[in-house]
Predict the 3D structure of the following.
Amino acid sequence: QTVVTQEPSFSVSPGGTVTLTCGLNSGSVSTSYYPSWYQQTPGQAPRTLIYSTNTRSSGVPDRFSGSILGNKAALTITGAQAEDESDYYCVLYMGSGIWVFGGGTKLTVL
Amino acid sequence: QVQLVESGGGVVQPGRSLRLSCAASGFIFSSHGMHWVRQAPGKGLEWVAVIWFDGSKKYYTDSVKGRFTISRDDAKNSLYLQMNSLRAEDTAMYYCARDPQHSFDIWGQGTMVTVSS
């Protein structure tokens, strides 16, 4: 059973930098998993931030960036703003036409 | 502009069927794979199904295999999800999403499916 792991919650100060991660219960995440990141606020549809590891979606501020850090995918927010307080989800392509989402990280900005 | 609009959700009894639709506009629909993703109330996102850009391949998460069918009509720029033998655990907001490179870039606003007697 493949499990995609994310921190359940994280906190960052306004103007600060935070890195959220996306891992696997077994193995390392690489670009071959096409990691992508989504932001969701309550009652809204997800918004794509990053796809294919580090490609920023149209209109996404450049304070959001994606990368591989060690054996995980990472989403870094540099200069966090109050409106960044949201749930963040990653998803990995497992191959063979299967995608698996992480459980999400609730980010608090305070 | 690039847009996806879902429809077809509603309240349905367990064991019954429902067909969701997703209307695409603003891009070349036939050039993209398309997904369905769902979110149960208060829960996280769950990938449900994908159809390749040319319709040649379809894949499903294990919990819906044999019950759900994804399809597309490129002439109508539309994606569908036929859901049969619905269960209470299928209750969720269902989103369609476009695939750029083995991920999702454009999302619809979602359509709610409630399975309840």
